[in-house]
Design brief:
binds FE2/S2 (inorganic) cluster, alpha+beta, four-stranded antiparallel beta sheet, binds fe (ii) ion, globular, 23 strands, 15 helices, 456 residues
Length: 456
C-alpha cells in the first residue's frame, strides 16, 4: 500500500532561493553549505529523490538479519525478512513515533517498541498491541503497519533505496558508474566482497564538502603531505601510496570521469605497473605485516604476487551520488546529521573465497586488507575532515559569498566529452564538482514523487 507524500509542500525551498543564482558555472554560493532551510530541503529533494546507499547484502546475509542505518535523516532498519525479502523499514513506531530498534545489528523476527510495547513482524506488519480491549479501532488497518521505503534494490550486493516513485530504475540511475564498480568487484575472487566492521568518524561541516573532495586530485600533495612523507619514510622505494601526486599531477597517468547523475570516478590505475604484484608494490607500508608477506611468498612462490595484489588498496575513487564511495578496498558512506555536521563511515571489506581458488590464503589476505585501514582511512581522512571543518568556519564570513570550482574550465581541449556523454579531465581539475553541483541544482528545483509503503 503506497501513501503519497506532498514533499514539495513540506520542504519547498525553491520559492525562497534562486538556485540558478546560488550555483553558477564556475562558483557556488556559501548558502548551499550553511543554510538550514536548504539542508532541510535537501533531505527530500536529494536524499528522498535519488537512490541512496543503505548497506550491503553481506551485512544481512540470512533471513531475519538486520542492521540499522539512515536515509538522509530518517532512521532505517535494513533487513532481510523471514521470507527473505530485503526491506528498508522506517525505524519508527506507528504509535507515537519512537525508534523501534536501537541496536546496530542483530537477528530478529519481530521488533517490540520499547515505549508501550506494540510489536511488529519484520515485514513491517503490526503483530500485537498490549491490552487491545482499550481500543475501539481495527488494528488490521494497514495504517498501523510500519512505514517503509517503497523502492529498495541492489546492484551486485550494494543495497540502495529511494522514496521517489518517478526515480529511474537503479541500474539506469547508476548508469556508467557500474563499469568501475564491476571492475572493482571482478578483481575479487567470485566477484564478491563481504563488508566488515567500520571506522566511524564525524566532522562539523556540510555533507557536500565530503562529496566535493571525493574526486579532488588537486589537494593531495598539500593536504596529505604528512601521510605521503610517512609512507615514503617507511619504505625503501619512493613510489608508495599516493606519491604519484608529487611533482606534476596535472599530467600524471590518472584522470577523472564524470558519469552523469552526480557520479564520478577518479582513476589512478594507469600509474600502476601491469604485472602480478604491481599493486602490492605501491601499497603503503604497514609495519608488522612483513611476516604475512613472507609466509605467503614461502607458501605460494610466484603466485604469491597475485595473492598480495588482492590485499592491496586499488587506486580508484568511485563516487556514487550522494553518499557512497568505493576507494582502495574500502567503502565510505557520508550521512548528513545537520547543515554543519556529517558522519563519515569507513567499512573494511574482506574477500570471500567460496570456490576455494585462493588455496587457503584467504585469512592472510583479509588480515592484510584490514591493515590497509591504517593507511589512508586513518592517516589521510583526518586531514580532509580538518579541512572540511575549517571550510565550514571560513564560510561563516557572511559577506564573502562564493567558493570557486573552475580549475580546468575554459582551457581548450582539456575537458573532453565522449559519445556516451562521459566527461573526462585531468584528475586535478574541478570538472567533477561543476558537473555534480549542476545535478544537485537540477534536483533542488525538481518535484520528486515521494511516497512511503506499508504492508497491506
Ligand atoms: S510509541 Fe511505540 S508503542 Fe507507543
Ligand atoms: Fe583528501
Amino acid at each position: 500500500m503506497l501513501e503519497k507524500v506532498n514533499a514539495g509542500r513540506l520542504t519547498s525551498a525553491s520559492d525562497r532561493f534562486d538556485f540558478d543564482e546560488l550555483v553558477q558555472e564556475d562558483r557556488a554560493h556559501r548558502l548551499i553549505y550553511t543554510d538550514p532551510a536548504i539542508f532541510q530541503a535537501e533531505m527530500t529533494q536529494v536524499f528522498g529523490a535519488v537512490w541512496v546507499y543503505l548497506g550491503h547484502e553481506s551485512q544481512i546475509a540470512r533471513n531475519d538479519d538486520f542492521i540499522t542505518t539512515r536515509l538522509g535523516l530518517r532512521p532505517i532498519i535494513l533487513l532481510r525478512d523471514s521470507q527473505g525479502v530485503i526491506r528498508a523499514l522506517f525505524n519508527r513506531c506507528t504509535h507515537r513515533g519512537t525508534t523501534l530498534c536501537r541496536k546496530d545489528k542483530g537477528t530478529a523476527r519481530t521488533f517490540t517498541c520499547p515505549y508501550h510495547g506494540w510489536s511488529y513482524l519484520n515485514s513491517g506488519k503490526l503483530r500485537a498491541v498490549p491490552w487491545p480491549d482499550g481500543y475501539a479501532c481495527d488494528f488490521k488497518d494497514a495504517k498501523y503497519n510500519v512505514a517503509q521505503v517503497p523502492r529498495v534494490d541492489s546492484y551486485r550486493g550494494f543495497i540502495f533505496g529511494t522514496l521517489n516513485l518517478d526515480a529511474p530504475p537503479l541500474l539506469d540511475y547508476l548508469g556508467g558508474i557500474t563499469k568501475p564498480i564491476d571492475e572493482w568487484l571482478d578483481r575479487q575472487p567470485g566477484g564478491k566482497i563481504a563488508v566488515c566492521e567500520a571506522n566511524r568518524l564525524k566532522y562539523k561541516g556540510n555533507w557536500k564538502l565530503a562529496y566535493d573532495n571525493s574526486g579532488d586530485g588537486y589537494h593531495v600533495v598539500f593536504s596529505h603531505r604528512s601521510l605521503l612523507e610517512m609512507e615514503n619514510r617507511q619504505a625503501d622505494v619512493a613510489n608508495k601510496g599516493m606519491s604519484y601526486y608529487r611533482s606534476s599531477p596535472d599530467t600524471a597517468p590518472m584522470y577523472m570521469a564524470y558519469m552523469g547523475n552526480g557520479h564520478h570516478f577518479k582513476d589512478k590505475r594507469p600509474a600502476i605497473e601491469k604485472r602480478a604484484g604491481g599493486l602490492w608494490a605501491v601499497e603503503g607500508p604497514a609495519p608488522g605485516t612483513e611476516h604475512y608477506q613472507e609466509e605467503l611468498r614461502r607458501r605460494y612462490g610466484a603466485k604469491a604476487e597475485e595473492i598480495l595484489d588482492l590485499a592491496s588498496s586499488e587506486p580508484v575513487n568511485i563516487n556514487v551520488f550522494p553518499n557512497f564511495s568505493l576507494l582502495g578496498n574500502h567503502i565510505q558512506v557520508f550521512d548528513p546529521v545537520a547543515v554543519d555536521e556529517t558522519d563519515v563511515t569507513w567499512y573494511g571489506t574482506a574477500v570471500v573465497d567460496e570456490e576455494g581458488v585462493l588455496g587457503g590464503a584467504v585469512d592472510e589476505i583479509n588480515a592484510l586488507r584490514m591493515r590497509t585501514m591504517e593507511q589512508f582511512p586513518n592517516f589521510g581522512e583526518v586531514d580532509d575532515l580538518a579541512n572540511f571543518e575549517e571550510i565550514q568556519r571560513g564560510l561563516g564570513c557572511l559577506e564573502d559569498e562564493w567558493v570557486y570550482m573552475h580549475r580546468g574550465l575554459g582551457i581548450p581541449g582539456r575537458v573532453k566529452t565522449d559519445a556516451n556523454g562521459i566527461i573526462t579531465a585531468p584528475a586535478t581539475d574541478e570538472a567533477f564538482m561543476r558537473e555534480y553541483i549542476r545535478e544537485w541544482k537540477r534536483l533542488m528545483k525538481a518535484e520528486p514523487n515521494i511516497a512511503i509503503k506499508r504492508e497491506p
